[in-house]
Automatic annotation (TrEMBL):
Membrane topology: Multi-pass membrane protein
Gene source species: Otus sunia
GO cellular-component term (any): endoplasmic reticulum membrane
Entry protein name: Acyltransferase
GO biological process, one term: diacylglycerol biosynthetic process
Record-linked InterPro entries: DAGAT
Pfam families in the record: DAGAT (PF03982)
EC number(s) from the headed UniProt entry: 2.3.1.-
Pathway: Lipid metabolism; Glycerolipid metabolism; triacylglycerol biosynthesis
Reaction it catalyzes: a 1-acyl-sn-glycerol + an acyl-CoA = a 1,3-diacyl-sn-glycerol + CoA; a 3-acyl-sn-glycerol + an acyl-CoA = a 1,3-diacyl-sn-glycerol + CoA; a 2-acylglycerol + an acyl-CoA = a 1,2-diacylglycerol + CoA; a 1-acylglycerol + an acyl-CoA = a 1,2-diacylglycerol + CoA
Keywords from the UniProt entry: Acyltransferase, Endoplasmic reticulum, Glycerol metabolism, Glycoprotein, Lipid biosynthesis, Lipid metabolism, Membrane, Transferase, Transmembrane, Transmembrane helix
Membrane-traversing stretches: 21-41
Compartments where located: Endoplasmic reticulum membrane
GO molecular function, one term: diacylglycerol O-acyltransferase activity
């Protein structure tokens, strides 16, 4: 394989953007493990009392990820995140007003490999606040990450909360409105489909978010992130292959998927874990009004789910030409 090296005279700003993305990759792939290792070192070392104090804190603070989290605007506003978003770049597109008098459940599609669009738009910078004043976004992620010492504090500071039913209910139960739950509907399983050009969404069997919206009267908003699947290449894993079977079994055991992805490096463009510089346009659709129904029937859930799929497909079709999707390509629901 011929290695393509980066030019020497690349502007400093682009270098800083690459470092910002490298930090993000480290946070997603290794920081949790690093934090757990550091905690073990504290326990086994001379500073064991600090680990005991943190365990006490963890016990007292265990429910915080399910009760709105603990965000810090200072972390969300780091200059580092500006360079992170500029690297791709990441854009948030508004198609309709969202009144702060309601609560909303935003369904984010597709998952991609590392959900860069969701993190960049809903956990960093002022874009969401400027486009949708009066709304506070909460990005729901797998509960397992909030059991990692120290790492949980970092992700909560950015505005991430648990994806448990209790957590989603807490956010959507805000009297007076003004809360927006962002749920990556396809989940970890969908990351295994995150190949360049892929438009396959794992959504046909995912109806829990519909039931939550009905129970709380939260308006549903489809969100499609164009470019999300273009950031990495993935080792071929068609359904039925031995690799896909192993990945799916591991996903069921651990709760998260392990896509074998690659892209570019820091100083060369041929291999590595740094994503490609591909623009991400996260388009927020129009809200679907939902009336509160504490005990929705299966038929009511099915009807709203069908309407959501219809609105999601319409959103995609209306905007695909703007972002380089061929006219003959459409979403595939699985």
């Amino acid at each position: 394989m011929k290695v393509e090296f980066a030019p020497i005279n690349i502007p400093l700003k682009r270098r800083i953007q690459t470092v910002a993305v490298l930090q993000w990759i480290f946070s997603f792939l290794l920081l949790a493990e690093f934090c757990c290792g550091f905690f073990v070192i504290l326990i086994l070392g001379n500073f064991w009392f600090l680990a005991v104090l943190y365990l006490l804190w963890l016990y007292l603070d265990w429910e915080t990820p399910c009760t709105g989290g603990r965000r810090f605007q200072w972390v969300r506003s780091w200059t580092l995140w500006n360079y992170f978003r500029e690297y791709f770049p990441i854009h948030l597109i508004k198609t309709s007003d969202l009144s702060p008098n309601h609560n909303y459940l935003l369904g984010f599609h597709p998952h991609g490999v590392l959900v860069a669009g969701a993190f960049g738009n809903f956990c960093t910078g002022p874009s969401f606040k400027n486009l949708f004043p009066g709304l506070t976004p909460y990005l729901h992620i797998m509960p397992i990450w909030f059991g990692c010492p120290f790492f949980r504090e970092y992700i909560m500071s950015a505005g991430m909360v648990s994806a448990s039913k209790e957590s989603v209910s807490y956010v959507l139960n805000n009297e007076g409105g003004g809360h927006a739950s962002i749920i990556v509907i396809g989940g970890a399983e969908e990351s295994l489909n995150a190949h360049p050009g892929s438009l396959t969404l794992n959504i046909l069997k995912r109806k829990g978010f519909i039931k939550m919206a009905l129970k709380h009267g939260a308006h549903l908003v489809p969100v499609f992130s164009f470019g999300e699947n273009e950031l990495f290449k993935q080792v071929a894993n068609p359904k039925g292959s031995w690799l896909r079977n192993v990945q799916e079994k591991l996903q069921k055991i651990m709760g998260f998927a392990l896509p074998l992805f690659h892209a570019r490096g820091v100083f060369q463009y041929s291999f590595g874990l740094i994503p490609y510089r591909q623009p991400i346009h996260t388009v927020v659709g129009s809200p679907i009004p939902v009336k509160r129904n504490l005990n929705p029937t299966t038929e009511e859930i099915e009807q709203l789910h069908a309407l959501y799929l219809q609105k999601l497909r319409k959103l995609f079709e209306e905007h695909k030409r703007n972002y380089g999707i061929p006219e003959h390509k459409s979403l595939i629901f699985e």
